[in-house]
């Protein structure tokens, strides 16, 4: 299982996923790998191809602050022309096309409130960190 | 009476950063002028004033997410000059490996992820397919190779620096930690696969070149100077040496220039239509002093690479033209030869008997009030120049970035391509893609050179002098 935590800790609530990663990392094993990334890049497709389950964790710019959502991700060949803008769905598509791997994939998102320069989380999204960690464990437990 | 018109390509896609291109058409619909505008502004030189100089490498690495290592190295070298120390030999070798790893991953990004759609699918390919997914479909092995080379470079950076992006391992006086035997062995183990990828990628690229005769003839194919740092024996280097200029005939114009004296031979001019400054070779003035830097320039100024396979490829590369190799289309080819060199050179350095030495940092306080550091970044020569006060606080900083040094050539290249391909009132994808593709050949890093992020859609408008939209293409 692979957990890919996406965010920028210098942009307040955008660092949400890295806080989730910090909670999960002590439990990392051979079967649970936790990655902190600033953005999704093509080479992640290879790492994704090596697991049966991948969970993306990210902050959302829209929605009621602190609200947690979880959705299943399916492969998508969107009209992507920019190297800086990979999405979970396009990475799943790459893993399938290049490595014939079709892991189960989920995206856990918490809506943020503050995305200005700064290193602290707003109280709303900070409160969603334990719930996100629990959601990751729940999905892992079902797998 | 026919009207003069302007075509604006905003933003330019598949490059690092945000820019736009304006093409000016005359009454007959012929391009008579072109401008490559860099529309983002960052101002690192200004906001680092007042910071302790020891913070500079870590601060400067934040300029760019693609080539932070180059900024780390140039900045640390400027700080070494402030300390007035000679860093331990092992630290220098480790910095070299660090820099070479970054060149591999950055060149791989440029070639495999940004430019390979143009080369593999053709300049006239369906815009919906002209991207990394089109590459996946047409040549999955090429896409895999690009991913593998990026991973190879990034894993070395991570092993040495602790993380892939913005590592802080390079410090004034050397590096913060020595290389472990486990990390050395792990990197060495990955070398054969990386070499094999570099080899087959060169074979692939050389096999495609025949299909791009028109592009080779029109993509920045004009006389300029070329500049790069070379070793004392004239060999290719990315870390240290003297500056050399050659002209379009391949003749030496200047050699053995000390990078610390860059202000004596390099000038920078600000144009009102861009945040990107235009550098020129001072003895020839603006804009006769147009010169190019980066992979093409480095291979034009170097006498040799210094590694067996890269030297064989360099010899073949030099046969492309009896003079210096002029077409900017060949930046792609040069990039692959450099990847080959970097992998070979890393293997040499990792097998050096001193590479695991624990003494990797010279400790000192500031012993000079001014320091210059220079290195070859993936896109060309990079200068960091700092002045500090008695307390060691930065009072003035100047960065001369590769992309700025290619600015005159990029503008001239856009004009050349546009004159060749853009005709009439209707905008076609192939026409515009070639205008963008010539910019991609230089692999500009605008985040670096303006010292942004964001979704880059493409909007092209054909405007009348009064601003009326005559034609428009939007891709999201």
Structural write-up:
The complex is a heterodimer of chains A (143) and B (476). With 143 residues, chain A is α/β, with parallel strands linked by helices. Chain A has one domain: Rossmann fold, CATH 3.40.50.1450. Chain A is built from 5 helices and 5 strands; from the N terminus they run βαβαββαβαα. A 5-stranded mixed β-sheet of chain A has the order 2-1-3-5-4, with helices on one face. In chain A, α1 (16-24) crosses α5 (129-142). Chain A is globular, with a radius of gyration of 14 Å. The mean pLDDT of chain A is 90. Chain B is an alpha+beta fold and 476 residues long. Chain B has a domain at 5-43 and 410-475. A 5-stranded antiparallel β-sheet of chain B has the order 3-2-1-15-16, covered by helices on one side. Chain B has a 4-stranded mixed β-sheet with strand order 8-7-6-11. In chain B, α5 crosses α6 and α6 (140-161) runs antiparallel to α7 (181-208). Residues 449-459 of chain B have low confidence and may be disordered.
Strand proportion of chain A, as a percent range, falls in: 15-25%
Please summarize the sheet with the most strands of chain A. 5 strands, mixed
Number of domains of chain A: 1
Strands side by side in the biggest sheet of chain A: 2-1-3-5-4
For this structure, what is the CATH homologous superfamily of chain A? Answer: HybD-like
Secondary structure class of chain B reads alpha+beta
Low-confidence stretches of chain A: none
- Helix proportion range of chain A: 25-40%
Give the helix/strand layout.
The complex is a heterodimer of chains A (143) and B (476).
Chain A: E1 2-6, H1 16-24, E2 33-37, H2 44-49, E3 53-60, E4 68-72, H3 88-99, E5 104-111, H4 123-126, H5 129-142
Parallel strand pairs in A: 1-2, 1-3, 3-5
Antiparallel strand pairs in A: 4-5
Helix pairs in contact in A: 1-5
Chain B: E1 5-10, E2 19-25, E3 31-38, H1 44-47, H2 56-61, H3 68-83, H4 89-121, H5 132-138, H6 140-161, E4 170-171, E5 174-175, H7 181-208, H8 213-218, E6 225-230, E7 242-246, E8 252-257, H9 262-265, E9 266-269, E10 278-281, E11 291-292, H10 295-301, H11 308-318, H12 331-350, E12 370-377, E13 380-388, E14 394-400, H13 402-405, H14 407-421, H15 429-442, H16 446-449, E15 458-463, E16 469-475
Parallel strand pairs in B: 6-11
Antiparallel strand pairs in B: 1-2, 1-15, 2-3, 4-5, 6-7, 7-8, 9-10, 12-13, 13-14, 15-16
């Amino acid at each position: 299982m692979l957990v890919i935590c996406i965010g920028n800790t210098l942009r307040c609530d955008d660092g949400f996923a890295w806080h989730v990663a910090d909670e999960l990392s002590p439990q990392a094993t051979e079967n649970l790998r936790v990655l902190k990334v600033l953005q999704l890049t093509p080479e992640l497709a290879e790492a994704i191809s090596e697991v049966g389950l991948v969970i993306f964790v990210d902050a959302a710019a829209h929605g009621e602050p602190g609200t947690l959502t979880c959705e299943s991700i399916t492969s998508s060949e969107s009209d992507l022309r920019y190297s800086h803008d990979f999405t979970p769905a396009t990475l799943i598509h790459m893993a399938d096309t290049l490595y014939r791997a079709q892991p189960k994939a989920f995206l856990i998102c918490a809506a943020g409130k503050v995305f200005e320069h700064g290193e602290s989380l707003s109280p709303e999204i900070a409160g969603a960190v334990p719930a996100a960690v629990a959601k990751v464990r729940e999905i892992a437990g079902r797998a | 009476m026919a009207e003069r018109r302007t075509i604006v390509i905003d933003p330019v896609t598949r490059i690092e950063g945000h820019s736009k291109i304006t093409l000016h058409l005359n009454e007959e619909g012929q391009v008579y002028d072109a401008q490559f505008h860099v529309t983002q502004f960052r101002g690192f030189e200004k906001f680092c004033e007042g910071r302790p100089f020891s913070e500079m490498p870590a601060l400067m690495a934040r300029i760019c997410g693609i080539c932070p290592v180059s900024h780390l190295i140039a900045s640390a070298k400027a700080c070494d000059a402030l300390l007035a120390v000679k860093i331990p030999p092992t630290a220098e070798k480790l910095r070299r490996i660090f820099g070479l790893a970054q060149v591999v991953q950055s060149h791989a990004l440029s070639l495999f992820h940004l430019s390979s759609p143009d080369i593999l699918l053709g300049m006239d390919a369906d815009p919906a397919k002209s991207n990394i997914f089109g590459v996946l479909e047409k040549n999955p092995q090429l896409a895999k190779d690009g991913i593998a080379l990026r991973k190879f470079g990034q894993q070395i950076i991570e092993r040495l620096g602790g993380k892939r992006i913005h590592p802080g391992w390079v410090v004034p006086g050397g590096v913060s930690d020595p290389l472990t035997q486990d990390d050395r062995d792990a990197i060495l183990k990955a070398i054969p696969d990386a070499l094999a990828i570099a080899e087959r990628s060169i074979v692939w690229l050389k096999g495609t070149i025949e299909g791009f005769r028109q592009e080779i003839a029109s993509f920045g194919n004009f006389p300029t100077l070329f500049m790069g740092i070379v070793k004392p024996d004239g060999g290719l280097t990315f870390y240290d040496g003297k500056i050399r200029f050659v002209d379009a005939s391949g003749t030496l114009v200047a050699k053995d220039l000390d990078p610390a004296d860059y202000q004596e031979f390099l000038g920078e001019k600000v144009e009102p239509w861009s945040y990107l400054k235009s550098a020129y070779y001072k003895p020839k003035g603006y804009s006769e002093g147009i010169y190019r830097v980066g992979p093409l320039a480095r291979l034009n100024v170097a006498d040799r690479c210094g590694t067996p396979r890269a030297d064989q490829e360099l010899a073949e590369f030099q046969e492309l033209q009896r003079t210096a190799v002029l077409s900017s289309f060949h930046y792609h080819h040069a990039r692959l030869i450099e990847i080959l060199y970097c992998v070979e050179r890393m293997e040499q350095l990792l097998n050096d008997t001193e590479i695991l030495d624990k003494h990797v940092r010279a400790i000192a306080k500031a012993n000079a009030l001014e320091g210059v550091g220079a290195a070859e970044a993936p896109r060309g020569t990079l200068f960091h120049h700092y002045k500090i006060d008695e307390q060691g606080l930065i009072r003035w900083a100047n960065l001369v970035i590769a992309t700025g040094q290619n600015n005159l050539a990029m503008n001239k290249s856009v004009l050349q391509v546009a004159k060749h391909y853009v005709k009439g009132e209707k905008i076609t994808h192939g026409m515009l893609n070639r205008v963008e593709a010539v910019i991609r050949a230089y692999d500009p890093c605008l985040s670096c050179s303006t010292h942004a992020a964001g979704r880059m859609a493409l909007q092209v408008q054909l405007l009348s002098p009064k601003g009326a939209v005559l034609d428009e293409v939007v891709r999201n």
